[in-house]
Amino acid sequence: MKKFLARLLALAALVAAPAAHAITLNGEIRNIDGDNDGFADDLLIQRISFDVTAGTSLFFDSLVWEATGVDLNGDGELTGFDNYMMLLTAGGSYLTANDDSGATYGDGSVHPYDSTIGYTFGTAGTYVITLGQLAYSTSEAMQGYQANRNYYDYNGNNLDHGDWRLTISVNSGSISNLSYSNSNSVPDTATVGAMLGAAILGLAAFKRRR
Hints:
Blueprint: H1 2-15, E1 22-32, E2 42-44, E3 46-52, E4 57-63, E5 83-89, E6 94-98, E7 116-120, E8 125-133, H2 138-143, E9 145-146, E10 161-172, E11 175-180, H3 192-209
Helix pairs in contact: 1-3
């Protein structure tokens, strides 16, 4: 029994190690008819919502410059744009933003246009991270598009969309309930907190049986 308890505690400690946990999301920005005027002349801003526990520390690392030769969505086209990333509360309050970054190379990026944000959330709740081209306002971030603005491909290609990959590293705490649209893949919604909770519940059940 003591060996079983020791193994369970070791599992809980392993699951709690945040450095091993990262979530990778893929998608694209493109022109859409955001204002419903009958013309696809509004530039999409990708909105990704998620929940965190208090004290959660996350690092958001974007890859939008496919000059690496990596085709992020497998469409046979290599795109590139200057990403602007903004972090907000679910209610639209501005927290922080980043345009160019010198900390973006851990995911294979080769250009500072691949922006990054590191942030520790003091309050549990729902938050939103957004990705778009160049600068945009808080209100545009929340509505999910910039009106009457066309996408421009920085790789010199005549393309109507830009691919992106976002790696979310969990340094502490937990993230859950990721939700986003206009994407090319389904996010991994497994969380460190959920796995740790399962380990703790198992430990509690073991104590009750004893």
